[in-house]
Design a protein that fits this description.
Layout: E1 5-9, H1 18-23, E2 31-35, E3 45-49, E4 61-64, H2 74-80, E5 84-85, H3 92-108, H4 110-117, E6 137-141, H5 145-156, E7 160-164, E8 176-178, H6 183-188, E9 192-195, H7 209-214, E10 220-223, H8 232-240, E11 246-249, E12 269-271, H9 282-298
Parallel strand pairs: 1-2, 1-3, 3-4, 4-5, 6-7, 6-9, 7-8, 9-10, 10-11, 11-12
Helix pairs in contact: 3-5
The structure holds nicotinamide-adenine-dinucleotide (NAD).
Length: about 300
Amino acid sequence: ERLSQLYIHESVSNVIPQDAFTSAFDETPIEVELVGDEKTYGKSDAVATYVPREAFLEAGWVHCIRAGYDAFDTNAYEEAGVPLTNSTGIHGSTVGELALSFMLSFARLTHRYREHQTQSHWWTPPYERPFTIENERVCVVGLGTIGEAIATRCDALGMTVTGVRRSDDPVPGVTDLVSPNRLHEAIEDARFVVLTVPHTPTTEGMLSDAEFELMREDAYVVNVARGPVVDEDALITALEENEIAGAGLDVFETEPLPEDSPLWDLDEVLISPHKGSATNRYHLDIASLIKENIRRYQSDDSLKNRVA
Ligand code: NAD
């Protein structure tokens, strides 16, 4: 059955302006309408959404506007025979640039200068503190869209790049490829450990006590993946006990990060509010993924980014 409607669930407004997003489909050959939770669906309907809803299992196809689709019950989609697609493939530069900005700040100290700037204070760091990311080793764990974008950017800035990846196909920018079961070897001499894996049972708590103990004392963790990939209590302990030097975090076990989290008060922790993918053209990037899949759906081609 062909699609006759694209319904945009109002939850998209969690991350993109719904009107601009809807207008991005002006030239699309099927009807597009913004809907709330009262809507029911049939097989000729496509849904674009941020949150999962039981009712979507009656639709013809569901697109999750996020890359991480861990909130969706993929088994239920498979049982219902409803294809589920996600928005992977578009976060390389956005999330990648945030990860690089964390790394550059830790090395060049913009976060510390800004802190003193708010007090009109001409602060100078101890001689030993600043460094360059050039010539340092970064370990990028997970070489999908975001991991690869980070690897190529780090390479361009003169870093040595270790990549942790299940397959051993070469990846641009990566000097050393290591398989996930050798994670410890990959992280032990890295100045930066950057997490870009999805949250799965295998990746949950991937960095915990043992890993922080193993890492260099002057190493920084950058998590732009999902909060639970890092054991947050273990991270806090490692930071408080100077087992590692700092952390740049866009994602947390609980979001928003609770006000009483010790992470807020640590000097060498950079916190961003899960906005790694934020850009003023995000709605257009997502819309073009969906438009491409409408074209494919209507001509019985396999859908891009299908996850169930
Ligand atoms: P992607 O699917 O392109 O890449 C994920 C990569 O991780 C794949 O290459 C996969 O093979 C690999 N992988 C999976 N399990 C692994 C393991 N155990 N060890 C090593 N590698 C493993 O996805 P992406 O677009 O690069 O995004 C990655 C993750 O980042 C998403 O799943 C999402 O949770 C998160 N994300 C965060 C933001 C943000 O705003 N901070 C935005 C987009 C995505």
